[in-house]
């Protein structure tokens, strides 16, 4: 799998599936971050996997 960022158009439309709140892309971890849910959703081949069961809890 490549470490490709999602398109800006896609990122502008994404919301957290848990909180429906805003998210942002983190290049270092190649994941979509939901600060409200404190979850990191993986990005695989440029496609965000926005499934809660695939997310990783963020450390405080």
UniProtKB/TrEMBL annotation:
InterPro entries: Trm112-like. It comes from the Bacteria. HAMAP family: UPF0434 (MF_01187). Belongs to the UPF0434 family. PANTHER family: PROTEIN PREY, MITOCHONDRIAL (PTHR33505:SF4), ZGC:162634 (PTHR33505). This is UPF0434 protein NQF86_07615.
